[in-house]
Amino acid sequence: MKAVAKLKPEPGAMALIDLPEPVRKPGEVLIRIAAGGICGTDVAIWKWHEAVVGQYAPSFPLIVGHEFAGTVVETDSARAPLGAVVAVNPQIACGHCRYCGLGRPTLCDDRRLMGGRINGGWTEYVSVPAWNVFALPTDMDPAVAPLLEPLSVATHAVLERVPVRTGDVVAVIGAGPIGILCAILSLAAGAREVLVTGVTADEGRLRMARDLGAVTVNVEAQDPLLSLRALQADGADIVYETSGVAATLEQAIAMTRRGGSVGLIGLCQGASTLKSTPVVLKELALVGSRGYNETTWALTMTVLPRVAKDVMRLVTHQVAYKDFEQALQLVERREGSKIVLRP
């Protein structure tokens, strides 16, 4: 079978290669892949940014891709019947460490992310534990399935780690897919206003956020703090930082009202300096949000019917596996929003 694989721990070194098809084990589900998504982590693996990939320690060749979905072709589980369209939670946890026992497998001592530490889904077939498979309702567009992984990242942040309350004013720093998904979920949760910031290169994404009901700010042309104060004089109740840019950390603190919360989602690759005095004087809560737990995926499936149509609007490009490098370049250049790979 064909697979997009990382061949060496260095920049580039990715290729479309031939590998044997996986053999399903008892308790697993064999899936024929229909599509996969690309996120910043995949670009970091392609470019081999140590600040991101250092957590994985994979062996090579490594099949890349942690956002993927497809159709069940072999199964012994009622959870994933034959022919069902399924999304896959790519996080394989040990199940017995302290954090798994606390219901927080995203912090697992032996967390194995498919496409990061172990083989992922940019291929033709994968076999995964039935526990990690989530079947879509039969009346739902199956094209939404590969977007459930990034939607679960946003769900963990917006509905679990730093929950939005009805009437909140929310600011989202970063207009990438996770930022827009955070905006969609914030509005669905009852936020009174959601402000999304980006740069000139994000104009298409900012236009999409406006169409979805958000207020948008190009920070290269406007002061986001002034725009935010027009919505709520003392700042946002919640700020989600999704850009992973070191310079925006102080901006996030400045944009948050006294007693508010900052959700840190983006992975920052560079060093940052942060003055803690405003955090103390404003009694802010700084909360990290990483990945998702099993509870998150169940919650995502509950929320999905309300937001699926908006989520689908993120898909701007569909690219064949053979052109994976072109697709990664699109993400790196911020062209489009969500890039979908197809076998």
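(ticket continues) Second input and output from the same batch:
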Amino acid sequence: MGCLVIPNFSIGVVLMQQAAQQAAQYFDHVEIIELHHNQKADAPSGTAVQTAQMLAEAQKSFNAPLVKETETIPGSRGGQTPAGIHIHSVRLPGLIAHQEILFGAPGQLYTLRHDTSDRASFMPGVLLCIRRVMALKSLIYGLDKIL
């Protein structure tokens, strides 16, 4: 029997991640901002980590430093992945789940954003997984693999 590990059940998030993978081929600077409710214990979110891993598949380093940075408050630039992608985590009441991927290049900013306003947004992905899991023969990581 197979198994699914799904960091995010939102089909909109999968589409955002796929667009980000395309953009990563053309942009050398990217940062991820993820925002969640203040009862979420982990940071960064699994979705942000998965997005950074997907971007790293472009086989390049991002965000080559142009100046020597100094953080006057440690951590203010967020965490940094081995590929050089900064991830910033926000935890506040009033939020559910949000993620923004910002790509920068001279004279332009390309922003991809997904916002969840109701937990019902995850149900189409959950139902898709329920319908597909029994036919799997191995471990599958990510909703994108079964869309």
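Agent notes: The chain has one domain: 3-60+77-137. The beta strands are 3-5, 29-36, 79-80, 86-91, 97-105, 108-116, 139-141. Closing as not reproducible unless the customer responds.
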